[in-house]
Design brief:
The complex is a heterotrimer. Chain B is α/β, with parallel strands linked by helices. In chain B, about 50% of the residues lie in helices and about 10% in strands. Chain B is globular. Chain B starts with a helix and ends with a helix. By secondary structure, chain C is mainly alpha-helical. Chain C folds into two domains: about 55 residues; about 220 residues, Orthogonal Bundle (MetI-like fold), CATH 1.10.3720.10. In chain C, a hairpin with a 2-residue loop joins strand 1 and strand 2. The relative contact order of chain C is 0.12. The chains are: A mainly alpha, B alpha/beta, C mainly alpha. At the A-C interface, helix 1, helix 2, helix 4, helix 5 and helix 6 of A face helix 1, helix 4, helix 5, helix 6 and helix 7 of C.
Chain lengths: ~300, ~450, ~290
Amino acid sequence: MLPDIKKRNALLRNLSFSDSNKNLALLLILPSIIIVFGVLIYPICYSLYMSFNKINFAQRQFEFAGLKNYLNMFTDKYFFNAIRLTIYFTIVTVFAEIVLGTAMALVLKQDFKGRGFVRGIMILPWALPGVVNGIMWKWIYNSNYGALNALLSQLGIIKEYQVWLGNPSSALNLMIFANIWKETPYVVLLALAGLSTIPKELYESAKVDGAGGWRSFWKITLPMIKPVILILTITKTIWAIQTFDLVYILTAGGPAGGTELITYYIHKSTFKFLEFGYGSAMAYILTLVTFLLSYLYIKSLSKEGEII
Amino acid sequence: MLKSRFVKLFTLMTIVLLVASLILTGCGKSSETGDSSKSTDSGQPAQQDTQDSGSQATSGEQKITVLLPKHEMDTKGFWEKETRQFESESGVKVELINMAWENVAERVTQEMAAGGSSYDVVEFDNAWVAKFNKNNWLEPLDGYEGADEIKNGLLSGLVNKFSIGGKFYGVAWNNDTRFFMYNKKMLEDAGISKPPKTWAEVKEYSKILQEKGIAKYGFIDAYPQSQVGVNEITYAIYSFGGNYFDENGNLIIASDPGVKNALEFLQKGLNEDKFIDPASLTSDYEAIANVFFKGDTAFFLQAWPGVYAYANDPSVSQIVGQIEVAPYAIGVDEKTNIVLTLPEAMAIPATSKNKENAWKYIRYMSSKEFDKRKALEIGALPIWKELYNDPDLLKLYPYWENFGKQAENARGLPDITWYDQFANIIQVEVQNILIGQTSVEDGLKSIEEQLKRVME
Amino acid sequence: MRSNTRKIINRAVIYILAALIVIYVLAPYLWLIISSISTKADLLKVPLNWIPRKPTLENYYTILAGTSSSTTDAASQFKYALANSAVVAISVTALSMVVGLLAAYAFARMRFRFKKPSFYLILLTQMVPPIALIIPMYMLLLKFNMMDKKISLIIVYLSLVLPFVIWIMKGYLASIPVELEESARIDGCSRMKSFVRIILPLASPGLAATTIFAFIIAWNEFFYALNFTSTIRAKTLPVVITEFSSKHGADYIMTSTGGVIASLPPVLLALVFQKYIIAGLTAGAIKG
């Protein structure tokens, strides 16, 4: 019952070859290529060049530094700290958001009264500007007057108001929670759209075959929305690695460097320490890692032509 | 059925597209006409082309662009009003851009690094002096008309702070000096007749206040991982007689007893003696002011000048009439009397194309008359020495007399070109100490090691 | 009888889960709304008053009408920023949807040389953190006199949104069975016709979701806007909202007010578009 990939590819081949206008494809992607590369190619090349240089602002010139910026990373303990935290942050947020988001999408796909409304407000956290999200959680976690302390103490769960952001591990986990709250709707939105494209007959015939809800989820739903989930996982990974606003506003990397994610550290190195070359070098290492990670995801989890 | 749904979606998107293009073209028009018509008078922000420096020459209009954060006490648009006044007196148009301090800092760095000439007057923070000087980013002001009068008339600390290598780079616009204030009523309720003078007394009185249930904690200060944290730690170190560097610029942080005592005192105060609110570790200035205004703490060790006025404003404070300025600041002993000064200045970027007009603006916005109006209207501390004896001001702000006593020994942050790397290491490692993750000694050793590596 | 009770239990479970979702999503947001209509005194209460004693809409009034005395403060600039954000986000959404749909179709349905490499390359551009690009971009904008202009933001955002729009839409397009298009082509439809008549309607859930996606990314972008705008000519909402703060910290109440207003347009958009995200590929669709 599931679409057969081989058959599909064969059909696809037919479709394209039957088309006499072979340049059509190029014509279709050309506008996108022009926009994306037109805007980004110069900045990317320039900053890549910067990563091999040291900038002397007084003389307004570059001093070639070879691989020095790249090698410096190996002795920078703040860099390693940031990498460690970013890995943890990325794994936890991506996993939680994908699982939670898909589960929510499954619920919101069901028929119930007020479904449209719930789907609409579902977007709220994601619709909130990142800076507002950061300030809102900062205030909720506030140790003197915050809502979290108020709620927990009024429920009798804590006796004394806690300094939630006052130790590295709880600060990091609360920051992760704030991120999950905000970003999950993105997964819900796209997963929901993915679920909506599954033909109903698939479920109907599965029912005839005697498959229960759980089985049809694994046998039909998941395989059908797998491409969407994969795309979500990769985009989420990219964004998690690039998380900046939240750190900037909620904790500024504290306490004791416990929430200093890598892009925040790059920002600090660039704009505060004026180490533009070093900042760029770290950014490109990050790019490389992100790319390899995405490539691995795609190679290991998707079949040929499924998402790329 | 399906088709009609698609038709609807398609129509919707077409409408969206149409609206977008309409708005876009509409905007192009309105901003063009907005330039020629004088929208400034109708209460709308002025909307001139900033970047088109070429258009200035053609229109013959003189125009400067000013990028400053807002004075924290300026709630009624005083600065802007004066800027408009300057415009009408000088005939120079001013595009005044106010942003949050962090945003300004980011923008100034960006602009300087990229070598742009978008701004003619920019924010110049006390912590940027050495760094900006090293990179030749600013225009020295010494040669400009009236510069000597300013250098002689301003508080010498403010002039020195913004001078380096024998050159004068910035005229202070915000004399942000900190003072020891306290809640007099709480002390009286606890039967304490005079404010503490030493750190030991702070601890002793805090205990009494807490035991009697008058205050939740003796004090709260801001020790988060940010610049703010470095400010407050620096104050604590200075007031314990310590310093990061000796007179010759050698690092002494691991061996200086003052540094060690200060950090030990704070670490114990937070974790064992518990008279310092542990929220200090995550609080910014806004947050600690809230706690003090709420009446939860009794001492405000390094309050900025505006705190006094806010404490007496019932819309934000529950301690109206209770705040007092001590005639001295807290120190390790009776003799030590040190406060922190963190002024901000106006400066002219070396790349500015309108330096003369920029200077005119700076001169106007720092004149003695202006300074007095600023003090009268928003209560900001003057930058001119003379005004501290001004009868009108002293009548309005009698507590300034004690400001004067405390400010006798005002000190700033260390002047080093690599200040930001320095601050970063201090922030992270001091927090490690304060939350009890490392001992004071190990922490200080680690700081010194890392600082030495950066210095190389 | 038994299947009936099971049905009821099923329904109940769904409603409970939906309620949980609503609570999870709304609780922090409600707190934001409450903060925006509270006075500072109410917010600083211990124990906290969850419902403000003296709710006030004054903040909303200030933010939408502006302050009388000044033009450079955040409250006075808010309405201009709202308009800027709308222009930028709508333009970016519309342009990226049209341009992106074309590319997505090509990537989903056609075979051409360098298909994979070009796709990877487009994605690769998104993996470079914006922080690395901001300085050269800033220099470019200075050079071409494009600082502080809405059009610059629109162009920059397009480069940010377009790759993801292409990728996400390609995913949805690819999930539509090729057989459907094939049969239409056999019936004599041209590629264009089958695209418009078959593919687009079936992809409408994906299209709607992607539209919302593009809008929200453009609407909420902060970092580029912070660096590339400085006056009400181009400043967007997220930037102005950060300006409800002094050197000493953020004004939480005004930030909340701004945040509540800023979050409404995307939600309205989602409410309008959500009906397109319901079951797209129904039994009827395949037959008809």
